[in-house]
Design brief:
By secondary structure, this protein is an alpha+beta fold. The chain folds into three domains: 12-81, no CATH class; 105-186, Phosphorylase Kinase, domain 1 (2-Layer Sandwich); 190-375, Transferase(Phosphotransferase) domain 1 (Transferase(Phosphotransferase), domain 1, Orthogonal Bundle), CATH 1.10.510. It is built from 16 helices and eleven strands. The strands form three sheets. A six-stranded antiparallel sheet has the order 3-4-5-6-8-7. It is globular, with a radius of gyration of 26 Å. The termini are far apart.
Length: 430
């Protein structure tokens, strides 16, 4: 079955199995018409593996949530039936779907403790038993294990490993041990930028200094032809000295350039931070400008306390990224300086050619504002990403617009002059 669209053709065979089953059942059971399917896919230039078709049809009002769920259940049953083994496993044997417990050692790496979980797998603090140094060991999960054997991945991973920059966590090694695929990275003790803001509530100047350093690292990587594609506040690490580090560099870029890896690659981006071209699945259009958009979202989140687009499903967020303008930052955080709002909105422009031409230029704009800020003695706090309301104390964290508050030197000068004049008048008339 073939669906013709305005900008491109869409084949049912190009869909993921679960989406293909969804469309087949929806058409067969008369939940959808072919015209409705065609109209739905005109929203996007092509299929995107990070989207759920059920969410798309619900968001467009073509299906009710109840009908979409029913179709999804039927589709899941169909896929399960198609993938049932023709023989029964021997007693005592694990199913391939059951994840075995992580061993205490993988190859030469001794597992010490878990550090966190990301889209590609789980990260552990480990010890290299040959070199006796701590490392961050990422064990890839599910379908991500498959593309580590790709020659394209290996070639690009070697390129990423050459990114020697003080603000980039480098990739040391990658490999396979038994059923485990893993990546080895430098271990840096710190917390994510998101947690850093929540816990430390840094001054505006400190936060901007951190972001500028991160942008310099991003510019360095872009000059080497490496694009991150998954920038977010949880992918920037901050150590005890307020030094930022970009994590997982190069992995998303590597899967972009190989057709077999593209389906995995599109899931690496986080919908809240995706540039429109990435959300549409335009793989060849994803470049340094896409990273600049994502960094604009990071700025938005850090300075307003919330992300520009939220939703109950991936598809709802994606549709907002594609079709809606973000709420003006100053509507959420009225005390935010207008210059910072302009910087954020330019970085997040939906058209690539209207964004900053480079990460270096965005850093330059922030540095210019920081120099301007240095003339103001206020060292203010910033809203936490978890704080949504402008009525919280965090709204007082940016420079005050009120000229005669008690802490303002003009207020005290005015009071001193008034007192002096009053004293002179009393002396003249008494």
């Amino acid at each position: 079955m073939q669906y013709q669209m305005k900008k491109s053709s869409f084949s049912l065979h190009s869909l993921k199995p679960e989406d293909k089953a969804f469309i087949e059942i929806a058409l067969r059971e008369n939940f959808l018409t072919q015209k409705e399917v065609e109209e739905a896919f005109q929203l996007l230039p092509g299929p995107t593996s990070s989207l759920l078709l059920s969410d798309l049809f619900v968001h467009l009002g073509i299906l009710t949530p109840a009908k979409a769920e029913k179709i999804q259940q039927l589709a899941s049953s169909q896929i399960i039936q198609q993938n049932l083994p023709t023989h029964h496993p021997k007693p005592g044997k694990y199913s391939s779907r059951i994840k075995p417990q992580t061993p205490s050692q993988i190859g030469k790496f001794q597992i010490i403790k878990p550090l966190g979980k990301g889209g590609m797998g789980e990260v552990y603090l480990a010890k290299d038993t040959n070199l006796h140094i701590p490392v961050a060991l990422k064990i890839l999960s599910g379908r991500h294990k498959k593309f580590i054997d790709s020659e394209r991945f290996k070639r690009e991973a070697r390129t990423a490993a050459k990114l020697q920059h003080p603000n980039i966590i480098p990739l040391y090694d990658f490999g396979q041990w038994k059923e485990y695929s893993y990546l080895v990275m430098k271990y840096v003790e710190g917390i994510s930028l998101k947690k850093y803001i929540q816990l430390k509530q840094p001054s505006l100047s400190t936060l901007l200094e951190i972001l500028i350093q991160a942008l310099h690292a991003l510019e360095f990587a872009h000059q080497q032809g490496i694009v991150h594609r998954d920038l977010k506040t949880s992918n920037i690490l901050v150590d005890k000295k307020n030094k930022p580090y970009l994590m997982d560099f190069g992995l998303a870029k590597n899967v972009k350039t190989d057709s077999r890896l593209t389906r995995t690659g599109t899931t690496l981006g986080t919908p809240h931070y995706m540039a429109p071209e990435q959300a549409r699945g335009e793989i060849q259009q994803i470049d340094a400008q896409s990273d600049i958009y994502s960094f604009g979202v990071i700025l938005y989140e850090c300075l307003t306390g919330r992300r520009p687009f939220e939703g109950k499903s991936t598809m709802e967020i994606i549709c907002q990224v594609l079709l809606k303008s973000p709420p003006l930052p100053r509507q959420i955080q009225p005390s935010l300086p207008l210059q910072l709002e302009k910087i954020i909105l330019r970085a997040m422009h939906k058209e690539k050619n209207h964004r900053y031409p480079s990460a270096a230029k965005l850093a330059e704009e922030l540095l210019h504002f920081l120099h301007h800020l240095s003339f103001n003695p206020s060292t203010t706090k910033n809203p936490s990403p978890t704080q949504e309301k402008t009525t919280s104390p965090a709204t007082q964290n940016l420079p005050s617009k009120h000229p005669l508050l008690p802490h303002d030197w003009k207020f005290w000068l005015y009071l001193l002059l008034l007192s002096t004049i009053s004293t002179l008048l009393l002396w003249l008339f008494l």
